[in-house]
Amino acid sequence: MSKQLMRLNKHFSIILLLIFLSCKKENHPNQENFRIAFISDVHLLDVRGTLEGIGYSGIDNPKTGEKALIRTMEAQLHSTRLFNENYFAFKEALDDVVKRGIKLVALPGDFSDDGQPINVRGLNKILNEYTKKHGITFFITTGNHDPTSPFGEEAGKKDFMGPQGQRQPIMSSEGLHKPQSGELPVLISEDIKEMGYEEIVNELSQHGFFPMESYTYWETPFSKYSYDTYSFSEIKKNSSLENRTYQITEGSTPQPDVSYLVEPVEGLWLVAIDANVYVPKEDGLHFHGASIGYNQVIEYKKHLVDWVARIVQKAKKHGKEVVAFSHYPMIDFNDGASSTMKQLFGDRALQAHRIPKKEVAQLFADAGLQIHIGGHMHINDSGIITTEKGNTLANIQAPSLAAYQPAYKILEKKTGPFWDVKTVVLDKVKNYDEFFELYDREHNHLTQSKSSNIWNKDVLEAEDYLDFTDFHLQELVRLRFLPSEWPEKLKSLLLENSGMDLLVLSHLKSKIIPEAFKTTEAWQTASKEAQEQLSSSNLSKTDFTHWTGLDWITDFYRLRSGDELAQQSIPDNRISTYRLIIQNLANNDTDNLTQLKEFGQIFEYQLHSEPSGNFTIDLQKKMLIPHKTISD
């Protein structure tokens, strides 16, 4: 062979090798073992912080000898989120992430307690610490609590804890709050105002909101460049918020949209969707809150659907895996029970106004999106849909660290069309009881003040953090949900009867007469039928007498919050008793039991949900496949 031919063959071989490597990089990157932790709804209050300007760090804590800037237990037990202990839960979650060797962490919104400077600054300090010490890269998207309005506003909280357990109001400016009886004089600090987009994202600028040189790729819905022409130095110049705005309506004030796409490691595209929508009020100066989510996105921010479609098309071209996350769910989270819930509880109860329309999932699925992680609802849940066009979208709801059950999600890419989801429950949290002596002081203050409906002191007997969040839920049911969400007739029926009474009721075929129906002949007949049913089942009378209607209501909320995880905390025989009553009610046409029957239907729906603990997303079979163990 001539030297010239040998040189040609050599050059040809090199060209083929370069083409092969190029194709491998573009279309077949190493896409296994991406692992991303999703820690949602942290609602961080910097309990170790100091209010700038006035140097206030809270009250003395005799247990630690340090200051504690905390809200009262009364405030916590009337809220769907904890304010204080979740500070420690967040650090516990991050420590667990470190132990597992995970380097990518996403925060799907509500990372702060209303976007105050002190809390956002405290969050940034923690994130920077874990980045520096452990090499973790964080990616954040905004929730309705950060910011609470697009441009910020004066605000404050009236229920920080004072030194003797009384309420200490702290406001960002004068005149926002007039002290009530038993409250301390108002403290004024701008550090407690609620910041807008600009201040928040600038403080957290190194955590996804802006391009970083370490990212392989970064863009926004407003970017004009392509993947092939990406240049960090050029993009950095055009990434300011003034270049990332949209209008709710023609002529309205342009608002920031801080959505972004980032490629933190080769082959993975993380899409952080800013699904906050702040509709202007009639005065043109203020805005409605952004808690509704995607139902308003598809009305006012349709550019996000188009952007996602463009991302998916480019991802296919360049061989990237796409995972989106935002603060809000894309799929109904009530396991098929939403219509019955609205019928029984109303359109506003149980956060019904936040249920995404079917159109939401259909639009994003047909745009090509297959995996989305949401938060906001403080629930552990999963959903999967396939559209008429054959496109599949899986929505994974990450629970809150500040509520029952406190947990975070790990998403891991496996071979082919498979992604694994692992749920890590934070049952043990160091320092979760650090403020219990202060809460005891608060309870004594409320008792001496003869306050009405005081919170149950048993919450301070919690054995661990999971137990503490369960107590929080129980008190939340008693102090908030029952008074505000439940129909009076159904509430009375459940609260005034034992499990055995409810079993007998499920057999009752006549009209219920308040306070007297247990003495009627119809009741005696129903009681006899209940006894006969027990004798032919695996259940005993004791199984029913060990719980009350309040227990059933509380278990309903446990299932609603924890889904598959919560079933571990409810005894199997109690679930069996519920199911027997539900079965009886389904066959009972008595008008007076209609509400109880609807409640039973809702409860049964919750027992038949998609896997939500540990499971595999199979995009080929278009289903969620449960693992043998449901939590880790």
UniProtKB/TrEMBL annotation:
Mention any Pfam family matching this sequence.
Metallophos
Stretches assigned to the Calcineurin-like phosphoesterase domain: 34-154
> Which PROSITE patterns does the protein's record reference?
PROKAR_LIPOPROTEIN
Q: Which InterPro entries match?
A: Calcineurin-like_PHP, Metallo-depent_PP-like
Q: Which Gene3D superfamilies does this UniProt record tie to the protein?
A: 3.60.21.10
Per its UniProt entry, which superkingdom is the organism in? Answer: Bacteria
Task: Please name the SUPFAM superfamilies in this protein's record.
Answer: Metallo-dependent phosphatases
Please identify the protein, giving its name as recorded.
Metallophosphoesterase
Q: Which organism is it from?
A: Euzebyella saccharophila
Upper lineage ranks?
Answer: Bacteria, Pseudomonadati, Bacteroidota, Flavobacteriia, Flavobacteriales
